[in-house]
What we know:
By secondary structure, this protein is α/β, with parallel strands linked by helices.
Amino acid sequence: MQKRLSIVMAEVHLRCLGGCREVGRSAFLLDVNGKKLLIDYGISLNETPSFPLHVRAIDVDVVVISHAHLDHSGSVPLLYTSKIKPYTVSTALSAVVLRYLLADMLKLSGYYLPFEVHEVQEMYESMTLVDNDEVVDVGDVQVRFIHAGHVPGSSMILISCEGFKALYTGDINLVESQLLYPADKQQILRECPIDLLIIESTYGDRAHEPRKIVEEKFVQAVMEVVEGGGVVLIPAFAYGRAQEIMCVLYKYLRDAVEVYVDGMAKALSRELLDYHMYLKDLKLYKEALKKVRFVKRAEQRAEILKKKGIVVISPAGMLRGGPSTYYASILADREDS
């Protein structure tokens, strides 16, 4: 007589609240056996901010943040405008960076935002901080944070329950950079089979040159301008991209060029020193940080632009606000820059 094999799997429902067929406001509500996990709750910062579909705080058991970039986290304070306070989980570094990014967003877009400093503080008081590879239990659901390779402290989110597995990659990078190790493909494969995969695919429709070639072309382009006496402005996101560019320039050029760092990238670059466990090469990072010059006052910017053969790394990465817009307005008419 043959025995029948019975497999019981969790009951699962997924609602896509934002980030589908668009860039920004990533948000997914995953219901696993009645436990509701809100995975990211981002914002799109255009002329006016746009938010994901509404979800009531009472309908959320836990908010899970993959990383601090606002397109994945900027709407989380919305959940703290009522008396119900869901608890939020992120890595410790993402929580630190998010404090800076939310404060900056409130300063620049506060008139359009349906929350204020109070809600941000409520969010922080409800946060649980973890490291990558830690597991958080939400009833019978296990939530595991896995290194994503995108920015320091970023995570993929693995959800497990009764034989069911879901993987949310968030923003994922599988290529080693100067700042970070890539996401571990073998670690992901060891978790297979994955029943539900939610994967970031912004640049999935194009081929990329090998990282080393991209870095060499970038450095060559920088040196062409520097050797001609011009100024190279590199608009960069304050968290992740600015620090990567610092490391690339230091690795290839060492003392060959004078590099200035402006805006929020200054404070976040210092913060990373306290979270060096997220970095690939602490020695390289410390040396790169030691060589750059921080712009301390707004009045310095005009003087810096009088110099010849320099590099300026400054937010905002898309030239939407921040000191980079000032530098760009001055350099726009210079043929050597």
